[in-house]
Amino acid sequence: MLIARQKLNENIAEYVLYMYQIEDLIRAYNFDLELIIENFVRPQLPDNSFIEQYRDWYRDLIAQMKSQRIDKQGHLHDLRDILVELSYLHNTLLNMANDQKYRAVFESATPYIEEFKERSNLKDKNHIEIIFHALYMKLLLKLQKREISAETEEAFDAMRIMIAYLARTYQQMKSGNLNFLNN
Question: Are residues 159 and 90 in the same domain?
């Protein structure tokens, strides 16, 4: 909860990836709030002063996931809304603002995005969604301590750089400090 709040304010890409983890965590614990609190939350807290806030946060997420019928797969509406905003910003930077720096990082990442799209079950997804799925897959591979080839690491890096640029621009946009005319 505290980590999510911090990431939401500081780095939208990290927030999305963190929340993908939380959704999977909730699914892994079969939506059992008490198991999540006892086995995941409580061991990470130095004291119990935040436990009720975490309980409320997870209770709310569980209710949202159930009401949105994403108990097996899928993402919360709030996360999907963020991905739509990021996609609009992506298209704006490429087509309206003609941001040459962003275009360069996008062009570097495009072959890897297309390759990932072809190898995955994401053929109906846009570039931003594909990148988030790829980066989440990398996170899962690292958690499983699986080896990542140099070529795959290169692909992840190109996508990560693109999303980092987009996330920074998103934070500027949200704070009112983005001027598309200065690109």
Answer: yes
